[in-house]
Amino acid sequence: MSTPEPLLRCRSIEAGYGASQVLFGIELNIQPGEVVSLLGRNGMGKSTTIKTIVGALAPTGGEVYFEGQSLRGMRPDAIARLGLAIVPEGRHVFPNLTVREHLLAFADNRNGLRDTWDLARIYAVFPRLKERENNLGNQLSGGEQQMLAIGRALSTNPRLLILDEATEGLAPVIREEIWRCLATLKAAGQTILVVDKYVHRLVGLANRHVILERGRVVWQGDSDALNADRSLWSRYLTV
Ligand SMILES: Nc1ncnc2c1ncn2[C@@H]1O[C@H](COP(=O)(O)OP(=O)(O)OP(=O)(O)O)[C@@H](O)[C@H]1O
Ligand SMILES: [Mg+2]
């Protein structure tokens, strides 16, 4: 039996900043419908891997493929149009656009596509955004901004949704709301690559986990395997 073509394939990615190399041959595949977590301590290369995937950083070696197509030389906006959406670290909400304007400005109404993320469906996942529909970005709490950043990413109907630090800096009750939302997205079949420091929560959410250490993949496996081997946690995950 042959394995299906991955939605995303990173083959031997090398990347860095100027003279300092950060990624040393990253291999990462994501199948359609999978939720994959990218784990590792601070500075191990998680965000750099994501920046390379979305075209914000050009790899110095290796290749990223999306639905079998090489992304080499493509600009971030062209890559986004292929169906890749990122919720970046820091959210990047526009201070003077309303919630509703954010959700309409980037919307991709792929005609003929069923189950697209229109306003009603985004508001169903985040009732809070509906309540805040006419508020400006700079009037939102951190949690509301993160919900908006996720809603905005969904409005493009991404084939792959990437979240870097999904719940960073949020109050516990808001974090739980984000985890619930991500579980809802997973149940709806959304393919997700997620970074977060709450590994316990990721174990409950993701199908598969990939651990980075100094720019290399040092382990990957499913949640049962990660749960069963606490030496992985002490070696690669806890501070
Ligand atoms: N813009 C940059 N210029 C130079 N070096 C950078 C830059 N961004 C990151 N680095 C370095 O690259 C390495 C990997 O950083 P990266 O941000 O990918 O780590 P991370 O795993 O996302 O960490 P964190 O958990 O802190 O977000 C670190 O040594 C970091 O200092
Ligand atoms: Mg990071």
TrEMBL record:
MF terms (GO), sorted A to Z: ATP binding
Keyword ATP-binding tagged: yes
Domain ABC transporter: 8-239
Keywords: Amino-acid transport, ATP-binding, Cell membrane, Membrane, Nucleotide-binding, Transport
Family in the record: Belongs to the ABC transporter superfamily.
Protein name as annotated: Branched-chain amino acid transport system ATP-binding protein
Annotated source species: Rhodoferax ferrireducens
Organismal lineage: Bacteria, Pseudomonadati, Pseudomonadota, Betaproteobacteria, Burkholderiales
